[in-house]
């Protein structure tokens, strides 16, 4: 067996190292955003938090807005879309699986920091955040619309859009109240209990 090992050219990090650096920068940015707000956090502060230069940060992100967009893609309402894709087809099981997956995605340190940023800086009406919510509602409405046409769920509760909003809104409300960056274990437990109870009630009401 050869003892020669492959070497990278100096100054060129491996893909794994580049990925680790980008993740570390995003983690640092989220911590600072949650503590000081978006406007109160500078590119220099983010880079220093990780012990890097600003030039290294710019090699991974075009600027602070790009970091914010990456945070929303990682820990924003897009998690609801992923939950829809991986939920079972049975209506009752779908509802409870959807709620459980969204809860798991939103009860991470990064996701809770995103919620602190949103509430701290008054970004609840931000275009990126709202676009993710609208996408999740549309995709849920498609699922409910199919079930309504197939008579698999009750038809007297409302249309697809109304059902989508009725499912998602209480879950998002629990996130806003209790799943923030400084949430206590008691607050996180309250969010979990409320979301699980809502999903169970909605599943029972939805099916004939």
What does this structure look like?
The protein is mainly α and 208 residues long. Helices cover 72% and strands 0% of the residues. The chain is built from 10 helices and no strands. It has helices at 15-36, 43-50, 54-60, 64-75, 78-85, 91-106, 109-120, 127-149, 160-178, 185-206. α1 packs across α7, α5 runs parallel beside α8 (127-149) and α6 runs antiparallel to α10 (185-206). The longest helix has 23 residues, at 127-149. The model is unreliable at 1-16 (pLDDT under 50).
Summarize the structure.
This protein starts with 14 loop residues before the first helix and ends with a helix.
Could you tell me the radius of gyration in angstroms?
Answer: 21 Å
- Main beta sheet: strand number and arrangement? none
- The H/E string reads HHHHHHHHHH
Low-pLDDT segments: 1-16
Helix percent reads over 70%
- How many helices in DSSP terms? 10
Distance N to C terminus:
67 Å
Characteristic key phrases:
72% helix, mainly alpha, disordered N terminus, 208 residues
Write the layout of secondary structure elements.
Blueprint: H1 15-36, H2 43-50, H3 54-60, H4 64-75, H5 78-85, H6 91-106, H7 109-120, H8 127-149, H9 160-178, H10 185-206
Helix pairs in contact: 1-2, 1-7, 4-7, 5-6, 5-8, 6-9, 6-10, 8-9, 9-10
